[in-house]
């Protein structure tokens, strides 16, 4: 749920009544400040993000997230494309997660950082609608994909369904997640406005990208926030939690002394990894969801540190875009060995064998070329 690009939206909505400006004054009074070119620029007397050290820290944090996200998620997709027995249903969904995270790292974060530091939207009307829409779209895709993964593993493990989910079916499901996400994120592209705003008491016009809901009231924003909190967080995580609790109980019952096969152990390891992925996503996004909802309800406008807190919570949420590759490398030998081979520029094998050993081209005749599914997680 990313439906305010910057705390500057507090200043830039369509309500210009005296009462509105009285509220804004709680955040920080404007004052005039001359730079080396004797130009007048607006700033906040209490805006901590204007301090040089804070700005350097924010630039470093966002840059690190972007670099780690680009490298990690690109590697995940590259490995799934390169290695034949990594092309499983679960890994297709993992690649979809990586693609959504890549979209945030490339389309959203650079513009969000610039808007936060400059307090002015310098990228035109098209990107004003596109950037918040793209970030909301990616978050919806991520949580829907995590839900689909949990339900697919629930179907396979709890009900012992050995029928494979075909590649075509998995791609169709991925397409549906993007279509549903596009609809859910639509209001952020539709109810948005790019305009030139006159800042009171300064006489300076700046470019603004802000929400513009029907009837120019905050009620619609609050309704949308509550709806997204339910659809994007509470309900999906409830479904995911139920699925993984049932899966864990089933695998624990199967892991009896007389039934400790490698398949059961692999399923337990894979399930543990996916649970960690969901937990990290939930923990990263919870503070931002709560802060955003409180902002729409006008519960935190009086805080002088509003903008800094918003930015910190946004950075924490964006950490979810690069943590997944680290979890895969830490908890899965296949991904870990593939990452190591890539960075060492070693000979690329055709197939990563189960538990991380490699089968090279000279051994191709010994490998059964088949596409595993989520019910048989041999390569996950």
UniProtKB/TrEMBL annotation:
Residues 72-328 form the G-protein coupled receptors family 1 profile domain. Belongs to the G-protein coupled receptor 1 family. Gene3D superfamilies: Rhodopsin 7-helix transmembrane proteins. SUPFAM superfamilies: Family A G protein-coupled receptor-like. It is a multi-pass membrane protein. It is found in: Membrane. The chain crosses the membrane at residues 52-81, 93-118, 130-151, 171-191, 222-249, 270-288, 308-331. InterPro entries: GPCR_Rhodpsn (IPR000276), GPCR_Rhodpsn_7TM (IPR017452), NPY2_rcpt (IPR001358), NPY_rcpt (IPR000611). GO terms for molecular function: neuropeptide binding; neuropeptide Y receptor activity. One of its GO terms (cellular component) is membrane. Keywords: G-protein coupled receptor, Membrane, Receptor, Transducer, Transmembrane, Transmembrane helix. It comes from Clupea harengus (Atlantic herring). The keyword Protein biosynthesis does not apply. This is Neuropeptide Y receptor type 2.
């Amino acid at each position: 749920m990313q439906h305010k690009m910057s705390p500057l939206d507090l200043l830039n909505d369509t309500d210009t009544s005296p009462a509105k400006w009285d509220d804004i004054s709680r955040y920080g009074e404007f004052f005039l400040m001359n730079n080396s070119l004797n130009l007048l620029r607006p700033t906040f007397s209490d805006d901590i993000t204007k301090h040089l050290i804070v700005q350097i820290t924010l630039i470093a944090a966002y840059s690190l997230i972007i670099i780690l996200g680009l490298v990690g998620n690109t590697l995940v997709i590259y490995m799934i494309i390169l290695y034949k027995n990594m092309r499983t249903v679960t890994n297709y969904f993992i690649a979809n997660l990586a693609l959504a995270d890549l979209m945030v790292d490339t389309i959203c974060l650079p513009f969000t950082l610039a808007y936060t530091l400059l307090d002015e939207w310098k990228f035109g009307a098209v990107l004003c609608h596109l950037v918040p829409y793209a970030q909301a779209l990616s978050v919806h895709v991520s949580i829907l994909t995590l839900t689909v993964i949990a339900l697919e593993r629930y179907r396979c493990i709890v009900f012992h369904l050995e029928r494979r989910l075909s590649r075509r079916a998995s791609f169709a499901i991925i397409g549906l997640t993007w279509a549903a996400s596009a609809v859910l994120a639509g209001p952020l592209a539709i109810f948005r406005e790019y305009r030139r705003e006159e800042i009171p008491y300064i006489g300076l016009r700046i470019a603004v990208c802000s929400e513009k809901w029907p009837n120019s009231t905050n009620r619609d924003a609050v309704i949308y926030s509550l709806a997204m909190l339910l659809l994007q967080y509470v309900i999906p995580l409830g479904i995911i939690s139920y699925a993984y609790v049932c899966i864990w109980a089933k695998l624990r019952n199967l892991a009896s002394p007389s039934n400790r096969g490698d398949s059961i152990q692999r399923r337990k390891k894979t399930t543990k990894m996916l649970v960690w992925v969901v937990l990290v996503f939930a923990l990263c996004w919870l503070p931002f969801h709560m802060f955003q909802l409180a902002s729409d309800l006008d519960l935190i406008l009086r805080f002088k540190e509003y903008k800094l807190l918003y930015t910190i919570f946004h950075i924490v949420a964006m950490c979810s875009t690069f943590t997944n590759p680290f979890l895969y490398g830490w908890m899965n030998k296949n991904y870990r060995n593939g990452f190591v081979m890539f960075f060492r520029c070693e000979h690329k094998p055709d197939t990563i064998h189960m538990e991380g050993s490699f089968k090279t081209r000279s051994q191709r005749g010994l490998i059964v070329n088949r596409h595993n599914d989520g019910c048989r997680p041999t390569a996950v």
